[in-house]
Amino acid sequence: MIDDNIIKIIQKTVTDKVVQIVQLSGGDTNSVYKVTCVKNTYVLKINLSHAIKNVFQSEVDGLSTIRKTRTFITPSILTTGVYNKISYLILEYVESGSKSHSFWIRFWQNLAKLHITSQPNFGYHQDNSIGSLPQYNKPISDWGTFYITQRLQPQFTWAESKGYIFSDKEKLFQWIENNTAPEKPSLIHGDLWSGNLLVTSDASPCLIDPAVCFASREMDIAMMKLFGGFDFSAMDSYEEIYPLAIGWERRIPLYQFYYVLVHLNIFGDAYYNQVIEIIDYYTQS
């Protein structure tokens, strides 16, 4: 049964007659619904954390930032706001197509063009979120310093407050300072697992639910490899436009490390051994 608050949010924002509301299998922090109307179909995302401000503002901002690059399609935003302390976002529903080889070539080409988008510092003009956790984006000129202070240290702090121990984290920080590639900042999606890549009915790649910032572009590649679902046989299409720095394969676990720490803080013990394995990989080899 659909909650009355959801009905009222839809009635408040959608003028088209509603035909059907179906709950989708969505993310870990939000409830997601498909709202079918006579003329259009929408996605409704709600967050029940009773936030004072709209928790979807950073998602709207991230989608807008990606859209402005004219690389990937992103869903059009109908509206966002707060109703009865429930944050909500209503956006275009993307009809699904099939992911052919030509789709993957286009995806990799678009990703390279997205990553070419740059600015002087690493970071972003505002903090945003990664899953249910805040993500900090203070502008910093040095990538290693940014990755340590804005990505890893906050996650370590939260994990340590829950009782997890990381005896070699300072050694890991030293490795990062000495071995990260000196590339310019790239605009990244920031949470590029397969569920955040859609294919439209005309076979165009479409990105959703970003955690954007200007960072090492290897972060996106690392996340793509962490959970799978991407066709790396077409990666040459990326390299032809924007070749990756020498040694990028060696750094993939380092940048997966951030996302594994995030999962440790959200989901708990199941990710602790993987965290320790990555620390050991860089501090004991």
Index terms:
Phosphorylase Kinase, domain 1, single chain, two-stranded antiparallel sheet, alpha+beta, 285 residues, 2 domains, five-stranded antiparallel beta sheet, transferase, Aminoglycoside 3'-phosphotransferase, Chain: A, domain 2
Description:
The chain has two domains: 4-92, Phosphorylase Kinase, domain 1, CATH 3.30.200.20; 101-283, Alpha-Beta Complex (Aminoglycoside 3'-phosphotransferase, Chain: A, domain 2). It is 40% helix and 19% strand. It is built from nine helices and eleven strands. The longest helix has 20 residues, at 248-267. 35% of the residues are buried. The mean pLDDT is 93. Keywords: Kinase, Transferase. One of its GO terms (molecular function) is kinase activity. It holds the Pfam family Fructosamin_kin.
Order of helices and strands: HEEEHEEHEEHHEEEEHHHH
Low-confidence stretches: none
Largest sheet: 5 strands, antiparallel
What is the CATH topology descriptor of the largest domain? Aminoglycoside 3'-phosphotransferase, Chain: A, domain 2
Which CATH top level class of the largest domain fits? Alpha Beta
Pairing-aware structural class of the strands and helices?
alpha+beta
